[in-house]
Specification:
The chain contains twelve helices and no strands. The chain is mainly alpha-helical. The longest helix has 39 residues. It is globular and about 60 Å long. The N and C termini lie far apart (45 Å). The N terminus is likely disordered.
Length: 236
Amino acid sequence: MPFFEDIGAEDEALRRPIWGAFALVKDNLERLITANIGWSLQLLPAIVAYGFVALPLIVRLLLVLYSLIALIPATGVLFRLMARVCQSETLRLDMLKEDLREMARPSFISLSPLLGMLALLFWLAVFSSTLHILLLDVLIRFTLLLLLVCALYWGPLFAEDPGRSAFFLLRQSALLAWRYPVPTLLTGCIVLFALIVGAVSIGGLFLIMPVVVALLQTRRYQEVSMRLKQHNRGLA
C-alpha cells in the first residue's frame, strides 16, 4: 500500500506546474545536470574576462562576445530539452545534436531581438537614473518590469515553435501574462528566488539552477496554454 500511495503522490505533484518541475528534476537529475553544465559552460569565457583583469582588453572583449553569442542558441536548445523532459522523453545525445541544428539559426532570429530589448531597457534604466527625471525613470523601469514578466514565456513559446517571429513571442507572452497574472507572477517570484540563489552560488549556477528555471517556465507555460485553449474551445 505505501508503494501505491507514493505513486499517487508523485502523479499529483506532476500535475502541479511548480511542484511538477521539482519532481521532474528529481526524476531526471543526472541528465539535467549534464544539460545545465553544457549551458553554463557558455558563461565561462565571460566569467574569465571578468575575473582576470590582467588579460588584454581585446581578449576580454572577445571572451564576453563569445558568451553573449553562444548563450542565445544554447538557451533555445535548453528550453527545447526541458520541453522534452516535460513530455516524459528521456534526454539523449542525439537529441542535443538534432535540436542544435534545428534551433541555432531561429534562436538568433527570434530570441536575440527580445533579449537585446531587455538589455537595452536595462541600460536605459541605469542611464535614466542619473538624469533625475522621475517620470522618465518610472516609465522605463515599469516597461522593463512588464517585459521581464512576459519573458517568462519566451523560451517555452520558442521551444514549441522555433519558426515563430520575435513579435509573435512578445505578443503571445503578453496575452498569457494578461490573462493569467496570478500564476504568472507566482512562477516569476519563484524564478527570481532561484536566480538569486544561482547568482550567489557558483555551484548552483553551473550544476542545476538554469534548468530548474527553464523547467518552471515551461511547466507554467504548458499549464496556462492549456487553460487558454480550453477557454477558446468553450467560446467556439
